[in-house]
Amino acid sequence: MTPTTRLPWRWASSMRVRIVAVVVVLLLFSSIGSVLLLRIALFDQLDEEIGASLDREAEEFQLLADGVDPRTGQPFDNDLSAIFDVYFSREVADEGETLIAFIDGELYQTRRSQSVPDPEEYRPTIDYWLSLEEPQSGVINTPAGPTQYTAIPLIGAPSDGMFVVATFPAF
Question: Is 35 in a helix, a strand, or coil?
Fold first, then answer.
């Protein structure tokens, strides 16, 4: 080998280059690790915020349903259409959220943010919610992706109803 052919590889055998290469590799791994940890922390925080939002919406609805109709000053007395009308007149769906009301298994009213799919796009999930007899919260897979929800059945005379607040984190 001539000295000229070894020259391009000579810099790689330098201790300085090796140290710089090790530092660059360590920085690369630490950057990737910190981005992944930050992503996990942010998703956990998002899940907590969604859960708190669902709980808040359910509590607001329960307080209204147990209270009086502000239009008449009289108790609602299981008048589901009046409860839903008052609730939906005051409520705006948050980003990625949908609010759905059913009376006797039929869609009565819905509010949803722009990006959330139409309720008919996840009809099997709606059928599941309508089958519930107790309030339930959880996560369910829908055609629109995983969905966190709180479903509150309203059973009484003269009709039965269902209130569902659902959040689609993908949206």
Answer: helix
Predicted model pTM: 0.73
Q: What are the tokens at 89?
A: 């007149």
Residue 42, SS3? helix
In single-letter form, the type of residue at position 18 comes to R
The type of residue at 170 is A
Structure tokens at 171: 């949206």
- At 90-144, the pLDDT tens digits run 888 888 889 999 998 888 988 888 878 888 888 888 889 988 888 899 898 888 7
Residues 6+ apart with CB under 8 A from 105: 130, 160
What is the C-alpha to C-alpha distance for residues 19 and 37, in angstroms, rounded to an integer? 27
The model's pLDDT over 12-45, given as tens digits with 9 standing for 90+, comes to 678 888 889 899 999 999 999 999 999 999 988 8
